[in-house]
Design brief:
Layout lengths: L1 H14 L5 H12 L3 H17 L3 H17 L3 H17 L6 H13 L18 H31 L7 H14 L5 H9 L4 H12 L6 H15 L3 H17 L8 H12 L4 E2 L2 E2 L7 H10 L1 H4 L3 H15 L6 H23 L23
Antiparallel strand pairs: 1-2
Helix pairs in contact: 2-3, 2-4, 3-4, 4-5, 4-6, 5-7, 7-8, 8-9, 9-11, 10-12, 11-12, 11-16, 13-14
């Protein structure tokens, strides 16, 4: 009896959870006082109580406040954890993607610290570069925490928004943060998010900046990768916009595209796309342009072989615009297995007796040596 009353009392107290305003103020004071870990546990346990009774909006307010105040104090791991929990609630509560929630996500994103990792050792670094090593480690933590948060947000926007690939704006934010904050920038990841974004001008600015500080041979590869990624998605407009915008930005700083065979390939490839863009309508490639496309691939194969992903992207482009379907790798494998199996079995076949009335004494009279073509 007493246990039943206790359970009913507990359920009633959960339903009667007060507005989170005072709780948020108290927890923010804890963080301001330097009690980061204790406050972190309180943020998680308090928000969990609201989630248990389906008060998702209140839980979102608590987690957003916690993420912002922890990040303000440089507690990237704590802030990043609460930021991911914020997105988890958006998914659990099945909140549809909207500008309101995008603005809240952007506010958390903008709170992540941005500290440039030095590219050289100065007076502040000892002979062993300990401080530089610490700076690089901290940068990795920032990049991983922010990336985890934005990737979760992209998954939510893909599930509860209108874009299959997730919010283009979120992709641009992630690309920018990876490029500017990661100590070991993965240009393939950066480009893949920019291409799924909606800002080719910003992508062009990033590539121009990259050209000024990358190693020789990395600049043309990064440019080609961006163009081919756009084309592989059927996005002729942004592929051309990217190159046009880069041309303008390079001209403004008295520079130009790298003079390499790979860039020459891209320059020749874009006109063959016959990309007539009018009122956001993109006309597909003409079928009779495929021989030129194929010739370009053959002529510049040495250049496009520099990056393993290029051939795959070019296959996608051929499928998108010329309806040249990629061969299923299994089909090629099974065909080769059948051919080899048949060749190996020919000696046995040739020694067999032919069926009665066939006109042959044995199969050897019509067998062809292992040079048979399948």
């Amino acid at each position: 009896m007493s246990r039943s009353l206790s359970m009913r009392g507990s359920m009633r107290s959960r339903r009667d959870l007060p507005p989170p305003g005072k709780t948020i103020e108290r927890l923010e004071s804890m963080v301001d006082g330097g009690n980061f870990y204790e406050a972190q546990q309180m943020y998680k346990s308090t928000s969990a109580r609201y989630i248990a009774v389906h008060k998702y909006s209140e839980a979102l307010d608590i987690l957003q406040s916690g993420a912002l105040v922890q990040l303000k104090h440089g507690q990237v791991t704590c802030g990043g954890e609460l930021a991911v929990l914020f997105v988890d609630i958006l998914i659990t509560g099945e909140f549809p993607y909207s500008e309101q929630f995008f603005d809240r996500i952007r506010k958390i994103y903008e709170a992540f610290p941005r500290i440039t990792v030095p590219h050289f050792l100065g007076e502040d670094y000892d002979d062993e570069g300990h401080k530089l090593s610490e700076a690089i480690s901290a940068a990795k933590v920032r990049a991983e925490s922010c990336s985890s948060f934005l990737k979760a947000a992209i998954r939510w926007s893909a599930e509860f928004g209108t874009s299959r690939n997730g919010s283009p704006e979120l992709h641009v934010m992630l690309a920018e943060y990876i490029y500017s904050e990661s100590p070991e920038t993965d240009m393939t990841k950066v480009s893949s998010h920019f291409v799924r974004g909606n800002d080719p001008k910003k992508f062009a600015s990033m590539l121009v900046n990259f050209m000024s500080k990358c190693y020789p041979g990395e600049d043309d590869t990064a440019i080609a990768r961006g163009v081919l990624m756009y084309l592989s998605q059927g996005n002729l407009r942004d592929a051309n916009l990217l190159m046009d915008e880069m041309k303008e930005q390079l001209k403004s700083v008295n520079s130009d595209f790298p003079k390499t065979d790979l860039i020459q390939f891209i320059m020749y490839l874009l006109p063959t796309t016959l990309a007539f863009v009018t009122c956001d309508t993109v006309y597909r490639l003409e079928r009779d342009a495929y021989p030129l496309f194929r010739t370009l691939r053959q002529k510049y194969k040495t250049s496009t072989d520099r990056d393993a992903v290029f051939q795959e992207l070019l296959d996608e482009i051929a499928a998108k615009f010329y309806n040249i379907q990629r061969q299923n790798p299994l089909e090629g494998l099974f065909s080769e297995m059948f051919r080899v199996s048949l060749i190996l079995s020919l000696p046995e076949l040739c020694s067999l007796q032919a069926p009665a009335g066939s006109g042959f004494s044995n199969f050897s009279s019509w067998c062809v040596a292992p040079a048979v073509k399948i």
